[in-house]
Batch of 4 targets.
Target 1
Amino acid sequence: MADYTDEYFTNTDGLKQHYRDYNVAPDGAPLVLCMPGLTRNAKDFGFIADHLKDRCRLICVEQRGRGWSEWDPDPSRYAPNVYVEDMMALLQHLDVAEIITIGTSLGGLMTIMMNALYPGVIKAAVINDIGPEIDPAGIARIKSYVGVGTPPATWEEAVEAVKFANRGVYPKFSDQDWLMVTHLLYEDKDGRPAAQYDPALRKNFDENDDQAAPDLWPLFAQMHSIPMVVLRGGISDILSATTLQRMATEHPDLVPVTVPDMGHVPLMREPEVQAAIDGLIDRFL
């Protein structure tokens, strides 16, 4: 039996959004909102959810146009400010006022924006491989694959495509690792792999570079009182070592964790990552 249920809420534009609800912890456990990256889905948080589920209630959400959430007929609404409002609709649906966030990539940017727009909602944060300043090389790499290419016809083709696109991201992955990551990215439809995001995401991403790489240092400064863990892949092309160092220098309660031999992003199954997140979560138990 799965340790989560598949649930839905309706956002302010009337679209149904899916989330996994890991609700097996004792009553009163902290609620952790897990927000995935640009083209990613709730499955990305399986490792950390399994690690935390006995202590926290985890809500692993899928943004509009991803996973099992409805696609938006207006692609201009695929934008971070809209996603933040969707998250506030989710919290209202859950009747929750305070949360801990785990945000990967786009989800990390959303964390910073949510705190600025709705101060007091976030009481602690894990930001996975992104910061207030984004390396342009990583943006170029992401643009090279979002919404382009021929969909794979077989799972073997899907694995090879994922390997090719991420060969510099996970240089030490085994064949089993590549298969696992492929199944995070695709779902099985009648024996064939199907991508789990709306290709129209690319349109807004292409037309508005600022939404992909805004200057968020002023907003990051507003998080100075929020305990935080920031994860970085040691060879990340999104979050540079220099940016992480500045984040740690400017924030009085930030634990930086760098995972060697890994790019964008750490999978949160790494022991050093889980230990750092444990240290943060334990402060609220």
Note: The first strand starts at residue 5 and ends at 10.
Target 2
Amino acid sequence: MIRLGEKQTLTVVKKVEFGVYLSEADKPEKRVLLPAKQVPEGTELEDELEVFLYKDSKDRVISTTHEPKLKMGEVAPLTVVSVQKIGAFLDWGLEKDLFLPYKEQIGKVQTGDTILVRLYIDKSSRLCASMRELYDMLETDSPYRRGDVVHGRVYEFSNNFGAFVAVDDKYSALIPRHEDHSSLRIGEVIEARVVGVKPDGKIDLTMRDKAYVQIDKDAQQVMKALEEYGGVLPFNDKASPEVIMSEIKMSKNAFKRAVGRLYKEHKVELTDTGIRKL
């Protein structure tokens, strides 16, 4: 069976001036062309060749000996080469760019972005890219442990969970929702620290420094916010996590630690309704 988006070993059943036709040994009537410029030198009838199958610009099934950057069942980062109203086109290492329909995009993509995608076959039996449903395709057997510094690509945001990241473009990871990730964008590669590995192998990440270092930065951020509010914050450390994240861009626990540090240093005073700079 000819399978789009996959590599297959097929048999040479006919030689022509513009290439060779390949087929499965037991189904010679279902043939696919391998263009002449890709036919290995010395190829003869009944030779077996490993090829990748896709559709050309005229929507014909064709084979190639080139290695694509993405195959069916895989997740890989591809670069956006052009953007149109109906979607974007991605460089996947073949003569024809891969189409990413608008409805399969998560967020707006721009030319030059490198984004994580998978392959699927659309209703017209064409190979297309999708930025959706990547979570279950990522690996969970990473070699990383708590405290390791890693690099990962942001591929999705969730109001309920946080920012989903593919460490090394292959391992499933998450920056939890209580940590500010509002400055991140889809496709961005970040440096983060592993704070935990779940029993199922998925990784929890943080972009924050270790607590004893981060508390100084957080205290400076609170002081900056106080100055922007004219020296008085209209809420204190009893405010909701949502208010604190919206206004200060940090979790409630981090905010409480920072305020506690400033209070001990006699830089702020706490009131029933807010925090005042001293």
Note: The chain has four domains: 7-64, 75-130, 138-206, 211-277.
Target 3
Amino acid sequence: MTKPKDMKRISILLLLAALCAGFSARAQETHRFADRDTCSLYLDIYHPAAGAETALDGHAKPTVLFVFGGGFVGGRRSDPFVRPWFERLNADGYGVVAIDYRLGMKDYKVGKGLVGAYKACDRFVLSQQIGVEDVFSAVSFLAAHPELGVDTGNLVLAGSSAGAIISVASAYAIANGETAGLPDGFRFKGVMSFAGAIISSTGKPKFRSAPCPLLLFHGTADGAVAYEHTGALGKGIWGSSFIAEQLQKKGWNCHIWRFEGSTHDVAAYMDFLWPIEKEFLEKDCTLGIARRTDATLTDDSLPRWKPVTMESIY
């Protein structure tokens, strides 16, 4: 028989569980934003923490639309690894929307070495393209549902690895007038790219007009996503260094942080580079201040993991 003291303890635990469940329900919502031939796509919404400052000098802080990494073969929109970063953003007054996208390289066999990557380039381009389409669909869904509380006129796109490729490619598409599926006149407030690039099968990518402000993080020894360029005969990956140099020549807003000797680890640095991200979100994205940065650094305090390469992914 349960003792009264035990019953009281159980009642308190049940009450705490109910309160926690209620908090979680308010903090996160899940919605289906698109149905594709092969799958349905969902997004999770994380609202700013209660009491957080959601404006800066009278300007509303943006919502961060996050695109996960995984080599176009895997990954999850709200992986436990990125939750601490979401919580940090929420605590500072930023909403977060984490989205699905179609995995264009899943179950696709890539041959070994540069030859294999070259032959698979068109498939990589397709994977990038459908990822961009899914980002645009998520934006359109949010715009069509203002009751969800996400201002699509105030969005910052962020991505890791394959998600960073999709994010940079999304900004590139908009700058080049490829806006099908987006609300009229749409433009991101900024893009944060953790080891991103642009994949092309038609030669060097060229921005026809100024994109939104870009914040690019990349390891100079990245063996998975090229830091500068890899490929041949007009097919390949053009990385953060190439993109930054092109934008710098035009005088357009771009920040690049080059991690000397770092590999693809940088793709997982979302929660470790908060001071840099915070400054970008506040100055470039919220206040609209035009700035540029080109920095090379080595920081032994940042974590290192087993190197990721094209061969280890595919």
Note: Confidence is low (pLDDT under 50) at residues 1-27.
Target 4
Amino acid sequence: MKPEDALRAIAAARGDAICVPTMTTAPAWRAIAPEDLSVTCVGFMGGASALGLGLALARPERRVIVFDGDGSLLMQLGSLATIAGARPRNLAHLVFKNGVYHTSGSQEIPGGLIVDFVTMAKGAGYREAYAVRDLGELQRCLPSILGEEGPLLVELWTTLAEQTPMTAPRGAPFHAQVEGLRQALLKPHL
């Protein structure tokens, strides 16, 4: 499935979740959901899951959805055990699996498409983990998955994104995104 199509399905089902897009999901997410509660994790590869964990622990009343890349997650694979140990009930960890480091030139990640993040997440102690290989399946199962208790991981088999942070127009700087999210979260939750 195209990552942009997966992101549109997520946008339709996310409700008021805080979203943490990273790397190749960031440009499309900015276009699909420009006014949502999100902070983009670009520039610190592998940091999306830790950023998402911090938000999930700080705001347990809100769903937090991390849009991770397979190459990014491999950079900080220990975050799976850290997240599992913290047991955030509100965290959904979506891994966009394309087998390459798309942002830096599409070099194959170690293990390519053979890497099994579902098995790794379950082995680390996530409550649940799934692999989704096509858009129709994602659209059917996403509402129930996002209603489940976390932490949970969904491995999304995707093609390459149309744009990467290196080819897309720049969004707001990270510090400005953080301040915007902070201000939005200070407002009463309805």
Note: The mean pLDDT is 83.
